[in-house]
Amino acid sequence: MIRVVCVDDSAFLRGALKEKLEAAGEIQVVASLKDGREAVEWAKTQKTDLMILDCEMPVMNGLEALRHIMKDSPLPVLMFSSLTAEGAAVTIKALEYGAVDFLLKPTSQFIGFDEVIADLICKIKLIVNKKRFVDPAGIKEKPKSVDLSAKKIDLIAMGSSTGGVQAAMQVVPKLPANSPAVVWVQHMPEHFTKSFSQRLDGISKMRVSEAQDGEIVERGHVYLARGGVQMRVAREGVRLKVCVSGTDKVSGFAPSCDVLFSSVSEHYGANALGVILTGMGADGTKGLVKMHAKGAYVIGQDERTSTVYGMPRAAFEAGAVDLQLPIEQIALGVTKLCGLTII
């Protein structure tokens, strides 16, 4: 059984989570706690596979509790977040502090609750099983050298999902200010992508912003797809621009990596570089197959360092990945292919 502890100041939500999770089988809710202080004390003395942690609670909020837990008694933590600008900012900090992922809190037991529970169950199983079966010897391996020759790269197209915030923190800040433009899809809802882009912009040499419809694609800029809306690149005369429109889901997502990558294959051909990072599912594979067929080089995150080795695996098994690298070496691989140097 997967042992889970739920931390939320709502007694109703704690009870509902326990009932739904245990009804699904394989998961046992071993404790239901009402605030962050109780969560910190629990983590010090009890063995738990995963913690579901609310952001906003009395006595000690989720962010402060997470900082103590990751310092003193680390374990996988999923944050329960509200769909607000403030909730998004707190969640981005939580992911940066070490939370493995987040879920949006259901507005009630009648609206979207079952969908949240289904997503929660899937995430719990993937995250906990990844932690249990990781090879300790593999973690101690020294990274292999990255021996790559420079190519003509005009655009870098990246995609990520579960674990992508932490992955981005290890890639984007290392890219030089004169890097080719980056277009990036990270599976996130509205508000969260804006907060995420602002955080990355504050620690990166490149300019990072949430993409706006009609923006001209410029070197030295990272364009992050807005949550809930599809993003593409399109030609405007001799220049390329970002197009942000359409809320229909493709490959299960809006924004979708497949939508972005397919447009990149059409307009950039062999002069693009694809990068697929940690994430659940297979979004991005179809688009990367198209990019690869046009001659684009593709880097995938390796299994050892992926929070969820779903999207990189699917692309690799489809034959669309030229090289798999641990997350700590992806920025180095990107800069070598672009003929640049990490400073």
Q: In summary, what is this structure?
A:
The protein is 38% helix and 21% strand. With 343 residues, it is α/β, with parallel strands linked by helices.
Structural commentary:
This protein has 343 residues and is of the alpha/beta class. The protein has two domains: 2-133, Rossmann fold (3-Layer(aba) Sandwich); 155-337, Methylesterase CheB, C-terminal domain (Rossmann fold), CATH 3.40.50.180. Helix content is 38%, strand content 21%. It contains twelve helices and 14 strands. It has helices at 11-23, 36-45, 62-72, 85-97, 113-133, 136-139, 164-171, 192-203, 257-268, 285-293, 311-317, 327-337; strands at 2-7, 27-33, 50-54, 77-81, 101-104, 155-160, 181-186, 207-210, 221-224, 231-236, 239-244, 272-276, 297-301, 323-325. The strands form three sheets. It has a seven-stranded parallel beta sheet, with helices on both faces. α2 packs parallel to α3, α3 (62-72) packs parallel to α4 and α9 packs parallel to α10.
